[in-house]
Amino acid sequence: MKTAAKMPANASLKSANGRYLIQISSLRSEVALRKNWASLQKKHKDLLGDLPLIVERSVLSGGRGTYYRMQAGPLAGKSQASGLCT
Asked: 24: which of 11, 58, 69, 70 fits an S-S bond (Cβ 3.0–4.6 Å)?
């Protein structure tokens, strides 16, 4: 399990509807991702407690496999997303 105390400011993503998300990690197993999310949400309740989990499945080219992206949001704007990442 990989947990960073501080995420890079560029970890925020703009969603299709114009709201912002943060991407926390990317894992090969959706089950492991959901377990990791529950642990992170419990450990960092003040930051992640009310944010819903968004799981994005991504099949990488070149036979690199399928990954599941752990995202949270939506957040009101880029400054809120960047602040949370900091």
From this structure: 70
Alpha helix positions (H), 1-86:
30-43, 45-48, 78-85
By CB neighbour count within 10 A (0-12 exposed, 13-18 middle, 19+ buried), where does 42 fall?
exposed
3-state secondary structure of 21: strand
H-run or E-run covering 75:
strand 65-75
Threshold 0.85, pTM exceeds: no
Strand partners, 60: 65
Amino acid letter, 9: A
- 22-58: pLDDT as tens digits: 999 999 999 999 999 999 999 999 999 889 999 999 9
